[in-house]
Automatic annotation (TrEMBL):
<dbReference type="Pfam" id="PF20408">
    <property type="entry name" value="Abhydrolase_11"/>
</dbReference>
<dbReference type="InterPro" id="IPR026555">
    <property type="entry name" value="NSL3/Tex30"/>
</dbReference>
<dbReference type="InterPro" id="IPR046879">
    <property type="entry name" value="KANL3/Tex30_Abhydrolase"/>
</dbReference>
<feature type="region of interest" description="Disordered">
    <location>
        <begin position="1"/>
        <end position="44"/>
    </location>
</feature>
<dbReference type="InterPro" id="IPR029058">
    <property type="entry name" value="AB_hydrolase_fold"/>
</dbReference>
<feature type="domain" description="KANL3/Tex30 alpha/beta hydrolase-like">
    <location>
        <begin position="107"/>
        <end position="234"/>
    </location>
</feature>
<protein>
    <recommendedName>
        <fullName>KANL3/Tex30 alpha/beta hydrolase-like domain-containing protein</fullName>
    </recommendedName>
</protein>
<feature type="compositionally biased region" description="Basic and acidic residues">
    <location>
        <begin position="16"/>
        <end position="27"/>
    </location>
</feature>
Length: 291
């Protein structure tokens, strides 16, 4: 696998919580599907001379949680991460930890959190995930630990391209190709994500040894945000993607590997389609999306 540089600081910016605040209230007719509010980072794990802050959603369960981390410019309280976690927690536990924008340090934090959970629960940790730069850190951690230790990856807004649309094959593409059989990967991406080229992603998925699934949010950007009238449904949409990910972890079909989430403008609600086979048509062909 590619060597991680000591000072590999990620330049990607994730929208701050302030920029992501809703300018309009959520439609009261379609409230968020989750009642689990984001927990403040009140717990910590010792790491050398530091403390890794984390939040555990739905902690009172025997199930091993998804270990998840945020992007480069935000934190675990940023809406793109906290809304996803709240939706996920309606179905399964999720541990979100706070990290630095340094990619190497984020991988080190992943390993520290995994080892802490294994000592505390005496069980393996089969699922890792993250959004944006955090998704890259999850992949690198899985490669370091091996597929016997990590069975599933949930990659939200995976940055296949660097800032400015630059390709970095070794740092972003090759690491996906190095994932072994036995690892299942879920990509959750916005259709308008400027840091992911969908044609290239399709080629990558065909080349990957690991099995992969794709959930596309129509009209969403890299920060999982919507524009125009659909913006009122952003929080519900992000929570819905968390629910999709949790259900995927529990049960998934090898042949049905793609689904979509979209805003139905006529009904004023977020809609999630069924999982379908790759190549069975897209939203534009089926004319599902009404904006």
């Amino acid at each position: 696998m590619p060597k991680r540089k000591k000072n590999d600081t990620e330049p990607e910016a994730e929208p701050s919580p302030e920029k992501n605040k809703h300018k309009e209230p959520l439609d009261s007719a379609h409230p968020p599907t989750s009642t689990s509010k984001p927990l403040p980072p009140t717990s910590s794990i010792p790491y050398k001379s530091k403390q890794i802050l984390y939040s555990l959603h739905k902690p009172h369960t025997s199930h091993t949680p998804l270990i998840f981390t945020h992007g480069a410019g935000g934190g675990i309280s940023a809406p793109a991460t906290s809304d996803f976690a709240s939706g996920f927690a309606t179905q399964a536990p999720i541990l979100c930890f706070q990290g630095s924008p340094n990619l190497t340090q984020r991988v080190n934090f992943f390993n520290a959190v995994i080892d802490h959970q294994k000592r505390a629960k005496s069980t393996p940790c089969p699922a890792l995930g993250g959004r944006s730069m955090g998704a890259r850190a999850a992949v690198l951690t899985a490669l370091e630990r091996g597929h016997d230790d990590v069975k599933m990856l949930v990659l939200v807004s995976y940055p296949l391209l660097a800032a400015g649309g630059k390709r970095e094959y070794e740092r972003r593409e090759k690491i996906l190709l190095e994932l072994k059989e036995g690892v299942d990967v879920l990509f959750v991406l916005g259709r308008e994500d400027e840091m992911c080229e969908f044609l290239r992603l399709g080629e990558m998925r065909a080349e990957m040894k690991a099995r992969s699934w794709l959930c596309v949010v129509e009209g969403a950007d890299h920060g999982m945000g919507w524009k125009g009238k659909a913006k009122v449904g952003e929080e519900v949409m992000r929570r819905r993607t968390g629910e999709v990910a949790a259900r995927w972890m529990e049960r998934r079909e090898g042949e049905r590997t793609e689904c979509e989430v979209w805003w139905d403008g006529e009904r004023g609600e977020v809609v999630c389609g069924e999982w379908r086979r790759n190549g069975d048509g897209d939203l534009s062909e089926m004319k599902k999306t009404k904006r």
